[in-house]
Amino acid sequence: MFELVGKCGSDFVLPSYHELENVPLEKTMKNTINMLKYIYDWKKTGCSIICDEWTDTKGRFYCHFLINSPEGTIYLKSIDTSDFSETIEKVFKVLDEIFEVVGEESIVQVIINNAPNYKVAVEVLMEKRKRIFWSPCVIQLLDGILEDFENNLSHHQIIIGKCKKIIAFIYSSTIVILMLRDFTKGKDFNGPTITRSATAYLTLLYLIDMKDALIAMFSSEQWKSNKLAKTKEGEEIQQIVQDCRFWREMVYCLIFAVPIIEVLLKIYSNEQPTMGFIYKEMNSAKESLQSWNNIKGYQTIWKIIKERWNPILHPQYIASYLLNPQLHYDSTFKSTSEVNEGPSAWLAKMVIDYDDDLSMTAENLKKIEDQIADFSTSKGLFGSEDANLMRYTKHPAKWWDSYGKDCPELQRMAIRLLSLTCSSCGSGQSWTAYDDEQVYPKKISCLFQEKLNDLFHVIQNFKSSIQRARTKKG
């Protein structure tokens, strides 16, 4: 190191403490911001603002503000939302600032949780920003459905409770873990941890998969000769595993839970553009459940789904189903009154004229409706050989980019809609780099807090850029 300093010559001036402390972070922050500006073409694809709430180990609430586009998710900033009375004003202020920085023409929707204070904040924002929609996080919605299954159906509670007992017992002893692996040929209960309720039902699936091995293990001489077999807890677990009614009830629980879990996993995995498929996936899940309408608990299950899903069946979900070429041209596409009339509220917002010229808005709306008719009848480029070949293989938004040129107004709207996410979660991305006490300590100077915020911003977006690179690499 000293040799390197010596090579700089006698005129070399050592950097000051301030330069060493601040300049590297300032440069990195600037590079991060510049990188974000050039990577995303938000005016074309649109983007979503995500309000993602977290709770730290001390029970304090924080809201992370993110931007999602087809290229990935960017961390913007976080605020402390522990004080409920201040949350509405705080959230509105930050969202409004984001609109000013990013540009209203680039933002299509705001994704929030279902907490009343967030809803009010976004409703206030929508009074000012007429073109935007709000959406709930669909993963949180589906988790809520599964949570309601468990809380409102006693046999679900009992079965999940017994499954938790089995797993807790097995993992409390290294000997029992090794014994299980002998019978399962190395299989384990490890699986994706998505949400609390989804994980509870996934545990049931893992147990069903290991049913024969578990019954064989708890019937074996190897188990009977183990001292744990003679304990009260060991006898209880053995009795549960060897009870045929336990496995039968588990199947009944999964009949209702699996269709919801399948939708949740598709959204979480990011395997397909979720906005264009969520309406179809939820309808498929409901149809699957309807075929079991003679099973105990069906009416309660159906009521839970309706109460959770119907209030948030926003017009953009229906519009994305209508405009998704993979679904629209498929033989299973259903042109119901809901599908034909549902998108009207979304279309009306998207064609709002900022000069309040109602005649221009009406003219634009009529033009869009005519273009939807052209899309439905495969007129022009929509019916070309290439367009037909690429319907099921190309990303829906990219398909519109390639073959929607005859209908430029509808093309722009379809690209922006079908590029959207419908979740604040996905791919296991965590936006908490370390304990929030480190980012938001109670006693700290304003200057140092600003520095911590910049550091947190750089870290989160660095993590996100690595994840994007891994996703592209496959």
UniProtKB/TrEMBL annotation:
Matches recorded under InterPro entries: DUF659 (IPR007021), HATC_C_dom (IPR008906), RNaseH-like_sf (IPR012337)
SUPFAM superfamilies in alphabetical order: Ribonuclease H-like
Gene Ontology molecular functions: protein dimerization activity
Domain DUF659: 15-165
Domain called HAT C-terminal dimerisation: residue spans: 395-458
Pfam families on file: Dimer_Tnp_hAT, DUF659
Protein name in the entry: DUF659 domain-containing protein
Source species of the chain: Zingiber officinale
